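Tutorial, part two.
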Amino acid sequence: MKRVSDLLNDKGRDVWFLTPDATVYEAIDQMAQKGVGALLVMEGERLVGIVSERDYARKVILKGKASRELQVREIMSHPVICARPELTVEQTMALMTDKHVRHLPVVVEETVVGVISLGDVVRGIIEDKEFYIQQLTTYITGG
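Running the prediction step on this input gives:
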């Protein structure tokens, strides 16, 4: 069964972040450049929040605020829901569903070691199921 650590090994451990003082405009620009839907908000090595396209849509656009003046600290989600590398993909899916989040920082002893998305978790679950089907088919056909 795949674990969060396997997902990170497959996708890489790049972590994109900015500071709480960055503007929301800078956050959206960086998300677009990196092709991601969320960025971690860090103060030095400490994770203090996460900002996503959803935060932008709900806390800036719908409220008619200006993204060039607004700071990330004003719209970021905190405290941050995190995952541990040893969680299975099924446990991670349950956590993400229960907490209504689409991006999870992966943390070991308060150090961020990667970020996974809902898409990464779904892909991991599908790969697990395909492996089980292949194993069952081989067993049934005696091959």
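The two ends are 22 Å apart (CA to CA). In part three we will examine how such features are distributed along the chain.
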